[in-house]
Amino acid sequence: MTLNSNISRVFAIAALALAATNFAGAAKAEEANFVKLMTANFLPRDVAQVEIGAFRFLPGQIAPIHTHVAPAVGYVAKGSIVYQAEGGKPVVLREGDAFYEPAGPRILRFDNASATETALFYDFSLEQTGEPFFVLEEQPRRPIDRSGLPTVDIGGKTIDHVDVYETELESGQTVTLENSDPTIFLVAQGVIDVQIDETTSQHLVTGETFAMPSSGSNASLTNASSEVEAKVISYVLR
């Protein structure tokens, strides 16, 4: 598949909400609508871990030219980004958009599109053992504000694509999931209480992540707020 066709697939956002049964085997989901944001396709690779970074770019901040040894998928949580991979045209990623940075081609632009507003985005790097998050060709003009989030051990599972979904939970709503593939979740908005396999409980706020790295796990997600809608982004590794 060519880079251009990959990029065109990256930014095609489905308008139709998927049935819960189509999401990672989530047959038990309660009143949940999962919207597919993106599918990122790449050559099969044995993924040892998924390294996650949160990046904050100041108004007008420009990213240095860089490459990814491992494919990376991500999400724009705030602001807008001008993105251009080598061989492709510049595109503008807006708040709520998912994106894909392929392994190999130089990333010519990944810049804050606004001269007045901060941008915030999350990158998920699907790494084999020993691979770096990215490789810079030059030092950045401004220091890069990157916060590391917990790295998820995948155990060498062979992956050739990632499906990205978005779901919104009303105040107090609970969704029950059963995954058939490794899945990583980002709380993009609100506060979520998570119970995994009836053993692990977590209280997570906006910007935090959790994972179901093994198939056959069960989880319940509850919007812990009585007033604010919650939004969760799901990365299903297949």
Question: What does it look like?
Answer:
With 238 residues, the chain is mainly beta. It has 2 domains: 3-38 and 167-237, Jelly Rolls; 46-157, Jelly Rolls (Sandwich). It contains 1 helix and 18 strands. It has one helix at 3-10, and strands at residues 17-18, 34-57, 66-67, 72-78, 80-85, 91-94, 98-101, 107-112, 119-127, 135-136, 145-169, 174-178, 183-189, 191-196, 200-205, 209-212, 218-223, 230-237. Strands 1, 2, 4, 7, 9, 11, 13, 16 and 18 form a 9-stranded antiparallel β-sheet that branches. The protein has a 4-stranded antiparallel β-sheet with strand order 12-17-14-15, with no helix packed on it. Strand 5 and strand 6 form a beta hairpin. The radius of gyration is 17 Å and the shape is globular.
Q: Name the overall outline.
A: globular
Q: What proportion of the residues form beta strands (DSSP E)?
A: over 45%
In percent, how helical is the residue content?
under 10%
Order of helices and strands: HEEEEEEEEEEEEEEEEEE
| Biggest sheet statistics | 9 strands, antiparallel
Q: What is the total domain count?
A: 2
CATH superfamily of the largest domain: Jelly Rolls
- Total number of beta strands: 18
The low-confidence runs, each spanning 5 or more residues with pLDDT under 50, are 1-29
First and last CA, distance: 18 Å
Per DSSP, the total helix count is: 1
Rounded to an integer in angstroms, the radius of gyration calculated over CA atoms is 17 Å
- Secondary-structure-based class equals mainly beta
CATH architecture of the largest domain: Sandwich
Per the CATH scheme, the topology name of the largest domain is Jelly Rolls
Mean pLDDT: 89
CATH uppermost class of the largest domain:
Mainly Beta
